[in-house]
Design brief:
Rossmann fold; alpha/beta; 393 residues; six-stranded parallel sheet; 2 domains
């Protein structure tokens, strides 16, 4: 990694302005249903506190669209962080303003202050330079630990870096090193599994991976579009017919580069999109009135065989509708195979992380990436604004 990290600067007695990614899932009642993103930031926060810095935290939550919305307050997040840190966490009433400035002045070494949801400010997502400059005045050093938001050029991910020294947090460092390793110098064979509902969202990463991997396994809803584009009847299965040309282009690119591209051979199909639907495994054309919702046992074994033999694995996106029990088998099988692989294994994307948790194998994955869109764009070879803004070593 050629970017400076929090370990490369003296933080003692300094106020560290820390961008974290606390965009955690919450139940309708407001309770946090998964605090893994909060836990992932703990090493950086503890490092700052242990080394005599004050930590001023910034995060977004949800999509309040530049307006204050109580349901998107970071109040519960602050409470949960306080429990995990065993250190008081004060929550500012806003992102900027006289009261916030006063609280910033008062925060001292070993203390934590969290600003309210950064997306309550309309200038956040516009990377407003005035907002960035005002926020930068709160700290002596900017620590970006929000890899999950690093692909966005926002005021709190990139703009602040124009005004005060910017370094990577420990989570950001871990993400860049893990993903950078498999992007630029993977051990081979390199196998990528790409799933999810729509090919439209992943065309660029699929194109990039055909230049980098030895084997590309495609599942999920997007595989249905691939199969339909190649002439396989899919009956009632939703497909993106406007993406057939892109799908065929990716298949051709893989073939021309000697990359093995595998699609499902058999599928778990249902006569309705329901957990209580009639279900059958089909190897061949999908019959009228049925839809493909998961990869079948033969495909599970085929995918797993490639994964287990890999030296490097990258997985993003479930290979079936894993939220429903009858269509969970394929994604569970992939999760187990990734866990059984002895090589470097990287899993990214919220659904994929949920899948390895559901399969009970999360602790056997070498790197669980906190960035969904960010990890995909990184694997496309794109420069992420939040990473580019950091100081070089």
């Amino acid at each position: 990694m050629n970017k400076k990290t929090v370990r490369d600067v003296d933080v003692r007695g300094k106020k560290a302005l820390v961008r974290v990614d606390f965009n955690v899932p919450q139940a309708k009642t407001g309770e946090i249903t998964d605090d893994s993103r909060i836990r992932a930031a703990l090493p950086t926060i503890r490092y700052l506190l242990d080394n005599g810095a004050a930590a001023i935290l910034m995060s977004h939550l949800g999509r309040p669209k530049g307006k204050t919305a109580p349901e998107f307050s970071l109040r519960r997040v602050a409470s949960r962080l306080e429990e995990l840190l065993s250190v008081p966490v004060r929550l500012a009433p806003a992102v900027r303003g006289p009261e916030v400035a006063r609280m910033v002045r008062e925060v001292g070494p070993g203390q934590v202050l969290m600003l309210e949801n950064t997306r309550f400010e309309p200038g956040e997502e516009k990377n407003d330079p005035t907002l960035a400059k005002e926020l930068a005045s709160y700290g002596d050093v900017f620590v970006n630990d929000a890899f999950g938001a690093a692909h966005r050029a926002h005021a709190t991910t990139a703009g602040i870096a124009a005004h005060i020294p910017a370094v990577a947090g420990l989570l950001m460092q871990k993400e860049i090193e893990a993903l950078g390793g498999i992007l630029h110098a993977p051990e081979r064979p390199f196998v990528a599994i790409i799933g999810g509902a729509k090919i439209a969202e992943k065309i660029q990463v699929l194109e990039s991976l055909t230049e980098r991997v030895d084997t590309l396994l495609i599942g999920g809803g997007m595989s249905n579009t691939f199969m339909a584009s190649l002439g396989r009847p899919m009956a009632n299965t939703p497909v993106e017919s406007d993406k057939f040309d892109e799908a065929r282009r990716i298949v051709a690119a893989a073939a021309s580069r000697g990359v093995t591209l595998e699609l499902p051979t058999d599928m778990v199909c249902a006569d309705a999109f329901s957990e209580t639907a009639n279900v059958r495994t089909i190897n061949g054309p999908v019959p009228d009135g049925w839809m493909a919702l998961d990869i079948g046992p033969e495909s599970q074994e085929n995918f797993s065989r490639y994964i287990r033999k890999a030296a490097t694995v990258f997985w993003n996106g479930p290979v079936g509708v894993f939220e429903m029990a009858p269509f969970r088998g394929g994604t569970d099988a992939v999760a187990r195979a990734v866990a059984e692989c002895g090589g470097m294994t990287v899993v990214g994307g919220g659904d994929s992380l949920a899948a390895v948790e559901q399969a009970g194998v999360a602790d056997r994955i070498k790197h669980l990436s906190t960035g969904g869109g960010a990890s995909l764009e990184f694997m496309e070879g794109k420069t992420l604004p939040g990473v580019a803004a950091l100081l070089d070593k």
